[in-house]
Amino acid sequence: MNLPKATFVTQIYFMSKSLHIESLCVKAGEYPEHSHILPIYPTSTYTFDDAEQGAAILSNQQKGYVYSRFENPTSDAVAEKIAALEGFGLNMPLQAYLTASGMGAVTVMMMSLLKQGQKVLTHYSLYGGTEEWLMRFLPKLNVEAVVINFDDLNKVEEILKHDNSIGLIHLETPANPTLQCVDIKAVCALAKKYNVKVSVDNTFATPILQQPFAMGADLVFHSVTKYLNGHGTTIGGVVIGNDIEFMNSVFRKTYRLMGANSNPFDAWLVMNGLKTLSLRMERHCENAKKVAGFLITQNAISKVNYLGLTEHPNHQLAKQQMKNFGGMISFDLKGGIDAGRKFINALQLCVKAVSLGTVDTLVSHPASMTHVNIPAEERMKYGITDGLIRVSVGLEHADDIINDFEMALSKI
Ligand SMILES: Cc1ncc(COP(=O)(O)O)c(C=O)c1O
C-alpha cells in the first residue's frame, strides 16, 4: 500500500465550498485509498526506494515522509481535518500542525514567531499555563508580556502606536473562568493597521462556534485535549496558520526542533472525536442553556456566568462573533469555600475533575482544587472567588445534570 503523499497545504478547502461543516467533520482529512477508517502509522521512520529518492525528499524536491517527528500520515490527516474546519466557508488555504498538547501548540507557535526584545500584547484571564509561559518563561528569552484589559480598544491602539516592539497580540476568547470575550474583529483590524500578527486560542468555542480566521486572525490554536477530542482520551494541541509560506518554513522548522509533534495513536483518537464535533457542540450548547436557566433561579447562587444570559457583559459580543454560546458555565455560591466543597462532594452523576469539553459533565471548585495553594487576593484578581464553581456541561440528558445539581445544592 502506498503512503499518502505528505501534503503540506490542505487540499480540502477547494472542496469545502460545496460541503456543510457537518460533512467536513466526518469526511475531511486525506488518507490512503481503500482504507475506510484512518490507519494508525506507528512508525518512527519511512523507507526510501533508493538514495536518489531519499535525497529528493530530504531536499524538499519531492514530497514524502522521512521521520515521524517531522510528519506522520495519521497526524497529518487530523491536522488537515482541523484546518478544513477552521477554514470552513472561507476562501483561504490553511496549514495545521498537530502538537503533543495545547501547551505544545502555544509554545511552538510563540517560539517560531517571536524574536528577542519583542513583546506579546495580551489580556487578563488567560489559561494558567499560557500565562505562566508568558510571565515566567518568555522573559528568560528576553520576550516580555504586556497585559491589559482589551475592553478598552483605545488603550490597545495607544500601545500599538507607541511600542513597535509588539510582535504578537495573543487572545483567548471566551476565557476562563468568567467567559470573558475579546472583540476579535476589532482587535485584528487594529493589528493590521500596525502590522502585528494576532493569534487566538479557540479551545472554548471550537471552529463550530467561532472562526477567528474569518475575523482577521493570523494564527489559531487549540488544546485538542478538550472539545476537539471530546472524549477525554488524549492530550493534544494544534496550530493553524494562514501564512502557508511561514507555516511550512519557520514554523515547521521550530516544530521539528522542539519535538512538538503529536503521536499516531493520540491523533487517531482525535480523528474519531472530530467526526462528531458539530453534533456534540450542538448538544453541549443546548444543555448548557438549560442548566444555566436552572442555576439562575437558585437562591444559593449569587451569580451565573454564561454567555447566553443577556446580563453577561459579553453577551452581545458573543452573539456577534460566535454561532452559539458554548458549553461552559461558572457560578458563584453565596456560601463561599465551604459551600463550594460541599456542593462538589455531593455530586453523584457529574464528575469532579479539571479539564473540559468531554461528553460527560465535569465540575471543579478552583478555590479548593486547582487554586488551593494560591492566596485568595491573588486568585480573586482572576475572578476565582471562594464559591466559584466551573462546569463543562456534558451530553447527558439536561434533566439528569439539573437533578444532580439540585440535589448537591440541597446539601450545602
Ligand atoms: C484555553 C486553554 N488553552 C490551552 C490549554 C493547554 O492545553 P493542554 O492541557 O492540552 O496542554 C488549556 C488547558 O486546559 C486551556 O483550557
Our measurement of the CA-to-CA distance between the termini, rounded to an integer number of angstroms, reads 61 Å
CATH architecture classification of the largest domain: 3-Layer(aba) Sandwich
Corresponding CATH superfamily of the largest domain: Type I PLP-dependent aspartate aminotransferase-like (Major domain)
Uncertain residue segments: 5-11
Cα radius of gyration in angstroms:
22 Å
Question: Which tags fit this structure?
Answer:
2 domains; 412 residues; globular; 7-stranded mixed beta sheet; 39% helix; Aspartate Aminotransferase, domain 2; binds pyridoxal-5'-phosphate; Aspartate Aminotransferase, domain 1; alpha/beta; single chain
Describe this protein's structure.
The chain has 412 residues and is an alpha/beta fold. The chain is built from 16 helices and twelve strands. Strand 5 (197-201), helix 9 and strand 6 form a beta-alpha-beta unit. It is globular, with a radius of gyration of 22 Å. The model is unreliable at 5-11 (pLDDT under 50). The site of pyridoxal-5'-phosphate has 13 residues, from helix 5 and helix 6.
Question: How is this fold's topology laid out?
Answer:
Elements (H helix, E strand, L loop, with lengths): L11 H5 L4 H7 L23 H8 L14 H14 L8 E5 L2 H12 L5 E5 L4 H10 L6 E5 L4 H10 L3 E7 L11 H10 L3 E5 L4 H4 L9 E5 L13 E5 L2 H15 L5 H11 L2 H19 L5 E5 L9 H7 L6 E6 L2 H11 L4 E2 L9 E3 L11 H5 L7 E5 L5 H12 L3
Parallel strand pairs: 2-3, 2-4, 4-5, 5-6, 10-11
Antiparallel strand pairs: 1-7, 6-7, 8-9, 9-12, 11-12
Pyridoxal-5'-phosphate (PLP) binds next to helix 5 and helix 6.
